[in-house]
Amino acid sequence: MTAAIYEKLTDKIMLTGSKIIPRLFEMIATQDEAALLLAMPGTPETLAEKTNRQTDAVERMCLELYRKGLCFKSFKGGTLGYKMCRDMIQFHDATILWDAAPQSYFDLWQEFMETEWPDFARLAEQFFPKPFTRVIPVNKSIETGKQKVLDADSVDKIIAAAEVIAVTKCTCRVIAHKCDQPLEVCLQVNNAARYTLDRGSGREVSKDEALKILRQCEEDGLVHVTMNKMHVGHFICNCCDCCCQALPLVIKEGLKICDPSRFEAVIDAALCSACETCLYRCYFNAIESIVTEDGRDVMRVISDNCMGCGLCQISCPEEAISLKEVRAEDFIPA
User: pTM value?
Assistant: First the structure.
């Protein structure tokens, strides 16, 4: 029974067959809590009926599961209810930010990311028509007036339009700790920020502080990644090439589990000094050195590899790099 109930939770987040995910559930949920999660969604009253428990006891358990990151509040119909985390991403991000999560829990998550996640990611690439996330360009690398910049293309516009903003630790770097990049850099916007503040898993920041975080991330060479939707909101992650769930597999295997932005870097050969700054700045192996017809060494963009993040542009000492629009507006799902 013990193993079966945690395997059922694993099935609900579409990771059937994992040997590690059931162990992760077992580390932070008792069997009674697991049974309550399986009964969700519902209000405390309906969940009490489903599980044959007292309503006040169910309310306390729901709040504890919410604090752990295993369930989320729902206000469907204007009534407070609870629903279980819907997928691996929610399970990963929410529970890792639980303030009582032990190091052994982080270590087991990292074991999953190293051993099981790549195979699940390969399946996800085939199963889902569009990736869940998308690269969004460094804001000042886009020259307005020369191409159309949508709100969904601009981290600064997302922040400017936000009603509330919070910042959390990067869950990927918390468990992987493969680099010394900053931890408190994942920006949550609007409903995601409200959830973060209600649960106490992050802190509220002003628009000015959010923009400072973004500028520091750009200077540190972190890639902006957001939800792959036209509407602006939810989150702006700032990702490295070693700890991230998606980018290492995009880089090493070319898996399409994170979409590029609508833009692509272009290098003006006449201005390029072949200093190779962009070569070392690019995570995606999208820059190469070539020799021009007149014998000059210059850098060139490999179009198929470019994710349109703009990190090369902001570090070019010769200002030889710009971003051009190469994908239509409908590339971003509505």
Answer: 0.92
